[in-house]
Amino acid sequence: MARIVVDVMPKPEILDPQGKAIVRAFPHQGITAFSGVRQGKRFELEVDGEVTEEVLATARHAAETMLSNPVIEDVVNVSVIDNSDSAEA
Amino acid sequence: MARIVVDVMPKPEILDPQGKAIVRAFPHQGITAFSGVRQGKRFELEVDGEVTEEVLATARHAAETMLSNPVIEDVVNVSVIDNSDSAEA
Amino acid sequence: MIEQHESQQTDSPQQSGSATQEAQGEQQFHLDTVEHAAQTPDTELPWAELGLKEDEYQKVVEILGRRPTAAELAMYSVMWSEHCSYKSSKVHLRQFGEKVSDEMKKDLMVGMGENAGVTDIGDGWAVTFKIESHNHPSYVEPYQGAATGVGGIVRDIISMGARPVAVMDPLRFGAIDHPDTQRVVHGIVAGVGGYGNCLGLPNIGGEVEFDPCYQANPLVNALAVGVLRHEDLRLANASGTGNKVVLFGARTGGDGIGGASVLASESFDDSKPSKRPAVQVGDPFAEKVLIECCLELFQAGLVEGIQDLGAAGISCATSELASNGDGGMHVDLSSVLLRDPSLTPGEILMSESQERMMAVVTPEKVQDFEAVLDKWEVEYSWIGEVTDTGRLIIDWQGEVIVDVDPRTVAHDGPVYERPYHRPERQDAIQADHFTGSAADADRPSGAAVKDAVLELMASPNLCSKDWVTNQYDCYVQGNTAMAMPDDAGVIRVDERTGLGVALSTDCNGRYAYLDPYNGAKLALAEAYRNVATAGARPAAVSDCLNFGSPEDPEVMWQFAEAVRGLADGCLEIGVPVTGGNVSLYNQTGTEAIHPTPVVALMGVLDDVRRRTPSGWDATADGQAVYLLGTTADELDGSEWARLRGHLGGLPPQVDLTQEKLLGELLINMSRDGMIDAAHDVSEGGLAATLAEMCLRFGTGARIGLGEVAERDGVDEFTMLFSESQGRAVVSVPRSEEVRFKDMCTMRNYPFARIGVVDAVNDALDLMGTASIPLPELKQAHESTLPQYFG
Amino acid sequence: MSANTFEAPLVADLSSPAPDAALKDVRVGIVTFPGTLDDRDAARAVDIAGGTSVPLWHADADLQGVDAVILPGGFSYGDYLRAGAISRFAPLMSRIIDAANSDDALPVLGICNGFQILTESHLLPGSMIRNNHLKFICRDQRLRVENAGTTWTADFTSGQEIVVPLKNNDGQYVCDQTTLDMLEFEGRVAFRYVGHNPNGSLNDIAGVTNARGNVVGLMPHPEHAVEAGFGPDSTAQGQVAMGEGTDGLGLFTSVLNTLINGGSRA
Ligand SMILES: Nc1ncnc2c1ncn2[C@@H]1O[C@H](COP(=O)(O)OP(=O)(O)O)[C@@H](O)[C@H]1O
Ligand SMILES: [Mg+2]
């Protein structure tokens, strides 16, 4: 079994209330290294057979039409994870 | 400006209602290539200066203590994105 | 748009700007200062792209005595837009202020024109409520559009000095089976809930209607109601020379200025992002914090004047605050906290970023003010002060970029007398009655009435709205005495006395399509009836007028007629309009939506524990069921006609004197304990009313309509499905029947005993015709929305 | 009631005043975080039950000597990141965690968002994820009190049913199998959904308790079923007049009575 990763992020010009809340909470934990946080989504799509070009194209299509809302989000990555047991480290 | 990416996924043994809903919706869109979907979170932490080992350690610490809940989630990736303008493609 | 503009206008300020920019080194933008504008009178500005008409632009030039700067142009263009200036509707809306009696003004503390009207409800308490549309944004991005719609109306309420206590959401969608309806319904309902639930405001009612005329034009109207002590009333004015002006809440980003990105021509910096988000994303958490923070500020008496930031952002807030006060304000725009540092001054002035407020604070209270904001971790920046110059002056990095009389921006916008005329087809529409039409071929009778009632109660517009309303928190704050699915939402205002308010929003767009004048009156009548059935004394109206394009004379006629009807109606029934909102251009191509003048009515209850539920429960077993009012053949525009695909003829007759009489009866009977349940008759007729009353608590009734049908001279089908006005069904305890009948007789209101509550048989038994088992009725009523939306 | 009530248990000399007056002396702190919604409702519930509610602010470092604490419902920090995730780090939470774990076993009740904060703080096991139907849901919910031995359930009997409102986005209780077995074995499931599992929670779990029974969390909202006229339309006994359901009151009387009758059951 292989997996395809799709990463979706809020568009840069769009307000990201979640990221905002996190970055404002950091200092209370003594974390000051980060000037901004944005929170997006990561999808892992499981493929039973082989990841052909066609499957990848389908993943890209799904990413654009279903996994993201193009009005407020960008698909920033569609790629294959090879090892089936653990995600990239 | 550099960015650190933190990826968090629901633990394999924990139900993922959102992923489940997506994989059930796929066939209605004619998408049949994927046997499972899991939805996690992707955080992008902005670093104003350089990404030192220390900053990376802070990111790992934030990932483990705040950005994920170890009862239900795993941190699957903490890494640096180099180019500052666009995410990895 | 930007490229186009730049290539077209080689002679534009950019040219001279480039030179200046080089000279200034660090300066990122070419600054179109007031001084520069005076020196370069011939510079062409993109007024057309910003939506101004040529004569409007000329008027700006005339007012200023020179060409406007880019920033001034930004302000005038947004403030003179239809949305902000009401330029097409103003001449008609005046009637709401003119057609009022002294009696109607008695309890009015703040009338139309402010952020929201304020009504005195006694004991030192006041209530403010308002309804507003967010239709277009909700079609583009349903979740965020609906969410920010709720957010915006709630800020209007805060800006009066009130604590918001509830929201409502009248919604209109396209055909239930249209593919796009899924997206729109899911997004909008989740958005209304997502924002309202997170703010901790109970949702206490609304509407859901499906009709193809709203395809690609869903209506999202949002109502918020707030309460305040009389002394806490705040108004949007900036008075007291030397007082400080503060902007607080969220940072300013490029939200809502997508269409106006033409202003990017102020800039020469190519790296500047050309894309401004067309969609605003709401942050309900930020707004919740803002509410609590503002209430703490009010309580400590730390603000003199306050204004929410909605449409037209800082342009609107500064010009309105200034023109309502001593008439002058000096603002340094460079101190505005930005989310996107690449914004130009014009864009900052136009930005519609959510969750922001502007306040005026006396210098000695600045420190205390800051302490409260710090406590709530709300960001703020002091951006200027009140002056006595009569001018609104705005600086940007040390240069004056705006110097205007604020009244000319906020109040002296253009006023149009748009041409209108009665559509030619209106006569034909009104002549096409349902009764006797092809659609009226098979009237059910006898046992077939059962299936007819089941079909009606399962239809998209009469089915249970639980799928929607179960996604809304109606409990939060602990003061909800009644909510969905009852006729009105009821909120307790004073925990000691039980004093409270009831609200209902209503409109039947089909009636308004057949006859906009009477359609508006019918909307008022239904809202009035709903509030009165709940046992509350009607006190104030707010409206949200949703129409097509005002540039279409036939739509404009619908609008003019509806406003005239509502204003006349309010005068007849004696309840003032305290504020509202107009949403025009709701159309796709040349097809306008049905005229949809939504009426929101607020009433007062001395003790909310006495509110009347819209159905009977098992303890009412054996109580008598009475119908108040009479029934005529009025099936035009009805739900039954809709089921048969017919829309024509004339809507039901509306007699507001009768409605008022009915209202008084219902209120008095409720107060004196003569009725245990009351439900008005509206869409779907008596059939729907009886079905809903049985379903409310799952308790049946035995009903016989023969006698009353004979009295009214109609057949049983008409009795059940006609939508005649001025009717309500009540259940009366046996011990109260004599008093009940006496009161109806004394007031000369028609009444008829039509049956009894029956807790044993678990059915709505239309005796001699059909018996409908409640489980079957419930199943039909509750399955429709889940079946379509999951 | 001043000073430190944990050192000087209320029981000591409260025999003389009438029981009501004694309840009044029990001070229950209600914590407000930014985004908390049901704090005033929880305070009202405590007051209706006869106790005295004390507002507490998340950023303070002082518990003001309260005898018990309620973390009310709402969307603290907008439920951003995860429900309860950011609030868990509030200064007052450290105090509450310490006091709950101390020998004095401060009674703590987490309702909805409060429950989520308690799991994020690891005062209670497991966690809540999105409802299985992915929608916010507001409904009157039937529950069974499974454990009447906690500080917050002592006025119920085990197996007793109640009806209280439920309203949330993230109400699906999850935990690993070992934890689940442990909770069931030790009788630490405090409340279970009856009739209808509204969100997919494991084993129909609606609320759990810690081992000592002083910390309890549940997703449904007992504070919305304490005042006749403003609650659900039914009780566990069946339908009542509109809004008259007050089945939630028991949680609030439980803590008051437990504190008066001998402190927590540690
Ligand atoms: N979008 C909505 N939000 C909240 N409540 C709603 C909504 N739509 C309908 N309701 C509620 O459902 C009930 C039935 O609606 P409706 O048939 O339009 O009422 P009525 O005919 O009395 O005006 C009312 O209590 C109404 O407030
Ligand atoms: Mg009604």
Automatic annotation (TrEMBL), chains A, B:
- What keywords would UniProt list here? ATP-binding, Cytoplasm, Ligase, Nucleotide-binding, Purine biosynthesis
Q: Which SUPFAM superfamilies match?
A: PurS-like
- EC number, as in UniProt: 6.3.5.3
MF term (GO), any: phosphoribosylformylglycinamidine synthase activity
**Which InterPro entries has this protein been placed in?**
PurS, PurS-like_sf
Q: Which pathway is it part of?
A: Purine metabolism; IMP biosynthesis via de novo pathway; 5-amino-1-(5-phospho-D-ribosyl)imidazole from N(2)-formyl-N(1)-(5-phospho-D-ribosyl)glycinamide: step 1/2
Q: Which GO terms describe its cellular component?
A: cytoplasm
Offer one example of a GO biological process linked to this entry: 'de novo' IMP biosynthetic process
Enumerate the subcellular locations listed in this protein's record, separating them with semicolons.
Cytoplasm
* Quaternary structure (record): Part of the FGAM synthase complex composed of 1 PurL, 1 PurQ and 2 PurS subunits.
HAMAP family given in the database record = PurS
Name of the protein this chain belongs to: Phosphoribosylformylglycinamidine synthase subunit PurS
Q: What is the lineage of its organism?
A: Bacteria, Bacillati, Actinomycetota, Actinomycetes, Micrococcales
From TrEMBL, chain C:
What is the protein's quaternary organization?
Answer: Monomer. Part of the FGAM synthase complex composed of 1 PurL, 1 PurQ and 2 PurS subunits.
**Gene it is expressed from:** purL
Q: Which residues bind substrate?
A: S133, H134, N135, H136, R155, Q280, E352, S353, Q354, S583
Organism per entry: Kocuria subflava
The record lists Mg(2+) 2 as bound by D156, D308
Q: What is this protein called?
A: Phosphoribosylformylglycinamidine synthase subunit PurL
Q: In which pathway does it act?
A: Purine metabolism; IMP biosynthesis via de novo pathway; 5-amino-1-(5-phospho-D-ribosyl)imidazole from N(2)-formyl-N(1)-(5-phospho-D-ribosyl)glycinamide: step 1/2
Say what the protein does.
Part of the phosphoribosylformylglycinamidine synthase complex involved in the purines biosynthetic pathway. Catalyzes the ATP-dependent conversion of formylglycinamide ribonucleotide (FGAR) and glutamine to yield formylglycinamidine ribonucleotide (FGAM) and glutamate. The FGAM synthase complex is composed of three subunits. PurQ produces an ammonia molecule by converting glutamine to glutamate. PurL transfers the ammonia molecule to FGAR to form FGAM in an ATP-dependent manner.
Q: Where is the PurM-like C-terminal domain?
A: 241-396, 621-760
> EC number(s) per UniProt?
6.3.5.3
User: Can you say where in the cell this protein is located?
Assistant: Cytoplasm
InterPro entries from the xrefs? PRibForGlyAmidine_synth_PurL, PurL_linker, PurM-like_C_dom, PurM-like_C_sf, PurM-like_N, PurM-like_N_sf
Q: Where is the Phosphoribosylformylglycinamidine synthase linker domain?
A: 49-87
Which GO molecular-function terms appear in the entry? ATP binding; magnesium ion binding; phosphoribosylformylglycinamidine synthase activity
Q: What's the catalysed reaction?
A: N(2)-formyl-N(1)-(5-phospho-beta-D-ribosyl)glycinamide + L-glutamine + ATP + H2O = 2-formamido-N(1)-(5-O-phospho-beta-D-ribosyl)acetamidine + L-glutamate + ADP + phosphate + H(+)
Mainly resides where?
A: cytoplasm
Keywords, comma-separated and alphabetical: ATP-binding, Cytoplasm, Ligase, Magnesium, Metal-binding, Nucleotide-binding, Purine biosynthesis
Q: What GO biological process terms does the UniProt entry carry, in alphabetical order?
A: 'de novo' IMP biosynthetic process
From TrEMBL, chain D:
The name on file for this protein is: Phosphoribosylformylglycinamidine synthase subunit PurQ
Q: Please give the start and end residues of each transmembrane region.
A: none
Phylogenetic classification of the source organism: Bacteria, Bacillati, Actinomycetota, Actinomycetes, Micrococcales
GN (gene name)? purQ
Gene Ontology MF term list = ATP binding; glutaminase activity; phosphoribosylformylglycinamidine synthase activity
How does it associate, per the subunit comment?
Part of the FGAM synthase complex composed of 1 PurL, 1 PurQ and 2 PurS subunits.
Q: Where in the cell is it found?
A: Cytoplasm
| Highest taxon in the source lineage | Bacteria
Task: Report the record's Gene Ontology biological process terms.
Answer: 'de novo' IMP biosynthetic process
The organism encoding this protein is Kocuria subflava
Write out the catalysed reaction.
N(2)-formyl-N(1)-(5-phospho-beta-D-ribosyl)glycinamide + L-glutamine + ATP + H2O = 2-formamido-N(1)-(5-O-phospho-beta-D-ribosyl)acetamidine + L-glutamate + ADP + phosphate + H(+); L-glutamine + H2O = L-glutamate + NH4(+)
State the Pfam families in the record: GATase_5
Entry keyword ATP-binding: yes
Fetch the InterPro entries from UniProt. Class_I_gatase-like, PRibForGlyAmidine_synth_PurQ
Record keywords: Cytoplasm included? yes
GO terms for CC?
Answer: cytoplasm
Q: In which pathway does it act?
A: Purine metabolism; IMP biosynthesis via de novo pathway; 5-amino-1-(5-phospho-D-ribosyl)imidazole from N(2)-formyl-N(1)-(5-phospho-D-ribosyl)glycinamide: step 1/2
Enzyme Commission code(s) on record: 6.3.5.3, 3.5.1.2
Q: Which UniProt keywords apply?
A: ATP-binding, Cytoplasm, Glutamine amidotransferase, Hydrolase, Ligase, Nucleotide-binding, Purine biosynthesis
